[in-house]
Amino acid sequence: MEISLKYGCNPNQAHARVVSHDASPLTLVNGAPSYINVLDALRGWQLVRDLRAAVRKPAAASFKHVSPAGAAVAGPLSDDFRRAHFYNLDDDLSPVAAAYAKARSSDRVASFGDFVAVSEPVDITLASLLKLEVSDGIIAPDYDDDALAVLKTKKGGKYVILQMDPLYEPPAVESRTEFGLTLEQDHNDLLPDPSMFANVATQNKTIPDDVIETMLVATITLKHTQSNSVAIGYQGQAVGIGAGQQSRIACTRLCCEKTERFLLKQHPKALNLKFHDGMKRSDMVNLMDMFVRYDELWGDEANHLKDMIEGGRGVEAITPDERKAWLMGFDGLVCSSDAFFPFRDNIDRVARSGVKYVVQAGGSARDEEVIAAADEHGIAMAMSGVRLFLH
Fold first, then answer.
1. Mutual angle of helices 345-352 and 248-264, in 10-degree steps
2. Gap between the Cα atoms of 297 and 300, Å rounded
3. The three-state (H, E, C) secondary structure of the chain, written as one string
């Protein structure tokens, strides 16, 4: 099997293709994928495949540049969630469509132009959601006929649609070529399960069942995220992902900032914003993101935000005290790390975002210091003993 690609990572890398010497599990249904599209598709598929197997719920991921911008399993969407992320209150979404709505909304700015992966066949409710979004393509195990008809109209008929055999199992040993040399390693077939969270090292040892599910979602998301990586999860969704940073505290700060923006979009002041008639969905998404980080704006940027919202210069920002109170009001926020936390600064930072549950590998020379920090904040922290690096 061979699929010709538009080009490699960059347009000057003209020779690009997908090759399988055996029967291929991957089928091109529509469009002309790029090299990066295929990488995102294959990485995204592995993530939703693992989520489906571990949590036993339909799963979805929104991928950009070979890391997830968001990932989630199916669950109910509150009216405030729908309003914050510009979904119709009366839309009856299937479980797989709801999973994608959650995944896309983890970081709607980062998900602009995403590659979608879902664990279930695509139905008309998911296709109708995707019709409204700026997206490059999708990979799924199958497509309903009416859903496929809708997707084939996206991007002037060029929307990339890939189908993956859900029964396919990769070889036990995988290889990659780098600078003319081939590296080999065992395929990472470890599937996180609740037993990974049994060793709770802190004084607070209570981790509810719904939090265990979110721990699984956050931890499996990290397995398929470029390292170093740290994620915060909430209600079966990875709401903040800090990926590919050289220091762990940078990952932690990044995932906390994303999480806070996600949570603040459901603050009453955010939900009461009124946008000018006829404004594009993508512009409203960007303005909402600007509003919840208003304290970072200054000068022309702040004035632009005010001019784009009805009420203009009378827009009332969320105050620092209101921000803190709002973030502390969310129960069930989970932080997961793909390796150990080497310093307590990571724990201090996630606590400031309202995190009450942590899972990390453990094994640092400063484990006792990190555990003491968790105890100070009343955090329940599990030591998984498992590292999940990906490069």
1. 0
2. 9
3. CEEECCCCCCCCCCCCEEECCCCCCEEEEECCCCHHHHHHHHHHHHHHHHHHHHHCCCEEEEEECCEEEEEEECCCCCHHHHHHCCCCCCCCCCHHHHHHHHHHHCCCCCCCCEEEEECCCECHHHHHHHHHCCEEEEEECCECHHHHHHHCCHHHHCCEEEEECCCCCCCCEEEEEECCEEEEEECCCCCCCHHHHCCECCCCCCCCHHHHHHHHHHHHHHHCCCCCEEEEECCCEEEEEEECCCCHHHHHHHHHHHHHHHHHCCCHHHHCCCECCCCCHHHHHHHHHHHHCHHHCCCHHHHHHHHHECCHHHCCCCCHHHHHHHHCCCCCCEEEECCCCCCCHHHHHHHHCCCCEEEECCCCCCHHHHHHHHHHCCCEEEECCCCCCCC
The model's pLDDT over 222-249, given as tens digits with 9 standing for 90+, comes to 999 999 999 999 999 999 999 999 999 9
CB 133 within 8 A of CB 104: yes
The answer to whether 229 and 251 have CB atoms below 8 angstroms apart is yes
Q: Which residue among the candidates 228, 265, 356, 377 is catalytic per the annotation?
A: 228
Q: Residue 191 carries which side chain, given as an amino acid letter? A: L
Confirm whether 224 is a catalytic residue: no
Active site residue 10: no
Q: Tell me how far apart the alpha carbons of residues 129 and 373 are, in angstroms, rounded to a whole number.
A: 43
Annotation says 267 is catalytic: no
Is 391 a known active-site residue? Answer: yes
pTM above 0.90, yes or no: yes
CB of 221 within 8 A of CB of 288?
Answer: no
Do 258 and 241 form a contact (C-beta atoms < 8 A)? yes
Per the CB < 8 A criterion, the answer to whether 33 and 155 are in contact is no
Q: Which of 30, 57, 64, 258 is catalytic?
A: 64
Pairing of strands 114-118, 135-140: parallel
- Which of the residues 65, 152, 269, 306 is marked catalytic? 65
Contact 242, 223 (CB under 8 A): no
Tens digits of residue pLDDT in 4-38: 999 999 999 999 999 988 888 999 999 999 999 99
* pLDDT lower than 70: segments of the chain: 295-302, 304, 306-315
Contact, 246 vs 391, CB < 8 A?
no
